[in-house]
């Protein structure tokens, strides 16, 4: 299962390529984390049980906007283990140890496909590079933008949908109140923890998450932890 938890997009069996992180230290936690945990434990009896089971772990950012989005594209529609394998092959391509718009645009499409990328994903990555290089993504301004404005700009990039944009908000910008209703891991976790495994609709999930505001990202992260205790990172 993928992303920072076992988050899974709505059209795949799990999330994006990610590697297990080192145990976090207190100084690495988002500044709101402790406050969010206290709120969630007061408001939600399920999270009151889950949160203490995962001490010293929290949502973390790699600090690389382009890399986070590239990883999300590479991992679409495939399992996390397969995504990790493809990503390792991808960054092993000559000149691509630290993928950037410039390095990826230098790669032959055949070499990218040989690393395990589909032709469509090659096109998506090339589109992402173009958007970063031509300035159509206002990366330096995003910190001041509201969530929905960032999502709107990101989904204009071919190959990036709302789920990927929401994962970016959570894992790169560390936005605290994202509720990724298209994430199958979140839906599975809500079903297991709140509905005894019964099917859960988006409406059901949204109602459960009402108590999580304004820390829905944190609650989602802990719901993922209830399914896969070891966090992984974009």
UniProtKB/TrEMBL annotation:
Residue ranges of domain HhH-GPD in the record: 74-228
MF-aspect GO terms: alkylated DNA binding; DNA-3-methyladenine glycosylase activity; DNA-7-methylguanine glycosylase activity
Source domain of life: Bacteria
Catalytic reaction list: Hydrolysis of alkylated DNA, releasing 3-methyladenine, 3-methylguanine, 7-methylguanine and 7-methyladenine
Gene Ontology, cellular component aspect: protein-DNA complex
Chain segments carrying region Disordered: 1-30
UniProt key word DNA damage: yes
Pfam families: HhH-GPD
BP GO annotations: base-excision repair, AP site formation; DNA alkylation repair
EC number: 3.2.2.21
Keywords: DNA damage, DNA repair
UniProt record similarity statement: Belongs to the alkylbase DNA glycosidase AlkA family.
The name this protein goes by in its record: DNA-3-methyladenine glycosylase II
Higher taxonomy: Bacteria, Pseudomonadati, Pseudomonadota, Betaproteobacteria, Burkholderiales
């Amino acid at each position: 299962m993928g992303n920072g938890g076992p988050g899974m997009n709505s059209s795949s069996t799990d999330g994006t390529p990610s590697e297990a992180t080192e145990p976090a230290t207190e100084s690495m936690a988002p500044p709101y984390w402790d406050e969010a945990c206290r709120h969630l434990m007061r408001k939600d009896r399920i999270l009151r049980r889950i949160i203490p089971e995962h001490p010293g772990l929290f949502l973390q950012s790699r600090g690389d906007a382009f890399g986070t989005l590239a990883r999300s594209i590479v991992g679409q529609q495939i399992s996390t283990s397969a995504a990790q394998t493809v990503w390792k092959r991808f960054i092993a391509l000559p000149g691509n140890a630290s993928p950037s718009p410039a390095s990826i645009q230098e790669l032959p499409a055949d070499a990218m496909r040989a690393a395990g990328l589909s032709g469509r994903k090659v096109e998506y990555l090339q589109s992402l590079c173009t958007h970063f290089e031509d300035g159509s993504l206002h990366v330096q301004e995003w910190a001041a933008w509201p969530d929905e404005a960032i999502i709107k700009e990101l989904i204009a990039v071919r190959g990036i949908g709302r789920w990927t944009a929401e994962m970016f908000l959570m894992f790169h910008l560390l936005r605290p109140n994202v509720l990724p209703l298209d994430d199958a891991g979140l839906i599975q976790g809500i079903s297991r923890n709140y509905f005894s495994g019964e099917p859960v609709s988006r409406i059901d999930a949204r109602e459960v998450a009402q108590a999580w505001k304004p820390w829905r990202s944190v609650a989602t992260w802990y719901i993922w932890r209830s399914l896969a205790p070891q966090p992984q990172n974009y």
